[in-house]
Design a protein that fits this description.
Elements (H helix, E strand, L loop, with lengths): L1 H12 L5 E5 L39 E5 L16 H7 L4 E7 L4 H11 L3 E10 L7 H11 L3 E3 L1 H10 L3
Parallel strand pairs: 1-2, 3-4, 4-5
Bound molecules: zinc ion.
The site of zinc ion (ZN) has 7 residues, from loops.
Length: 167
């Protein structure tokens, strides 16, 4: 979290846009065990469970993207069922730096969808964690993302790069 916050703050200093995706599930979402899904009940719309972590830096002007908000559709990717791609295109974004939870589900699927939509993607390896429901799921997810053309980066490298290109 502190590493991710440093990247977010560096983006904010440079006036670069930041997007925050969140699960925003109805109480009877299809992904929940009560409906035969694989996840415990989580991130129910409008409840504390759906809030961002209190230590996360969310800049003024950041865009919040809610996903997984229809009861019968899972959405690991921030692009699925949202207008994220259109919003990024409208801003002229060509490269996305991705962090957060979880490396083997939401980060993975978001990276793959971002590649399909034509964005360059750098996954901040030190700013994400895997569930690892099966051992090595996280490693496999990183490999999947790389195979799709995503690059792996670190928070320190991105911050250093941004500082070196400071106008
Ligand atoms: Zn979910």
């Amino acid at each position: 979290m502190p590493r991710l916050n440093k990247v977010i703050e560096a983006f904010e200093r440079r006036g670069l846009p930041t997007f925050f995706t969140r699960d925003w599930h109805p109480a009877d979402h299809i992904s929940f065990k009560i409906r035969g899904g694989i996840w415990p009940t989580h991130c129910i719309q409008g409840t504390p469970g759906a809030e961002f972590h209190p230590s996360l830096t969310i800049p003024t002007g950041a865009v919040i993207i809610s996903k997984g908000d229809s009861r019968d559709a899972e959405a690991y990717s921030g692009f699925q069922g949202t207008n994220l791609a259109e919003q990024l295109q409208r801003l002229g974004v060509d490269t996305i730096f991705l962090g957060g939870l979880t490396a083997d589900y939401c980060v993975r699927d978001s990276a793959l969808d971002a590649r399909k939509a034509g964005f360059a993607v750098t996954v901040l390896k030190d700013c994400t964690r895997a569930v690892n429901a099966k051992p090595r799921d996280g490693e496999r997810a990183l490999a999947d993302m790389c195979r799709a053309g995503a690059r792996l980066g670190t928070s320190a490298a991105v911050i250093k790069y941004l500082a070196s290109t400071q106008q």
